[in-house]
Amino acid sequence: xxxEPYAPARRAVHEQVVEGFGTVRILPLDPHADADVVHGxxxxxxxxxxxxxxLTKQQVLEMYAHLDTLDTHHAFLAxxxxxxxxxxxxxxxxxxxxxxCYQAEPGDIGVHLLLxxxxxxxxxxxxxAALLTAFTSFVLVGLDRRRIxxxxxxxxxxAIARFVRQGFVPGPRVVLPEIDLPDVYLPEKRxxxxxxxxxxxxxx
Length: 204
Prior knowledge:
This protein is of the alpha+beta class and 204 residues long. It contains 5 helices and 10 strands. The chain has helices at residues 35-42, 57-67, 127-142, 157-165, 198-202; strands at residues 14-18, 22-28, 73-80, 83-91, 108-115, 147-150, 169-176, 179-180, 185-186, 189-197. The strands form 2 sheets. An 8-stranded mixed sheet has the order 1-2-3-4-5-6-10-7, with helices on both faces. A two-stranded antiparallel sheet has the order 8-9. Helix 1 crosses helix 2 (57-67). It is globular. The N and C termini lie far apart (44 Å).
């Protein structure tokens, strides 16, 4: 029996057929409807660098509900052929702590990416590249941005290598400062910045 597609009625902000992979729909995250999926992913040890290990489902829901009130930060769920496969976040660098560590330029946009676990069938070669293809198309073309900045933890060598394979150019290693506010807490983070321009991704 085929499983029902995930959130079929939710309007996608981007939909793309990636050759040899399938159809990727990027949906605005619904903090309440997607809480089970997101909490399951961020609770895994493999997601430790995401910084949400140990949080309850209610805490995860509250964090994304707060994010949903911001104009500068946005969360999305990627669905491949009806199955949730990644958590994707965008942010305005000048409204984020990363702006304290590099010179943000007009047209920059920040991105965070968490892939879903591989599942019972094991590794899925080509998945990260295919999903990054859809995400970069959405951000650089759909949102008309000039450059993506990512800031993975410097210890997360798999993520850094994944971005480099996709054409990102490594920048400096930086220390993102601690954020301690009533609505959000982020510990200090040692990060490896990397950048991808629209010209490098699409030649235009």
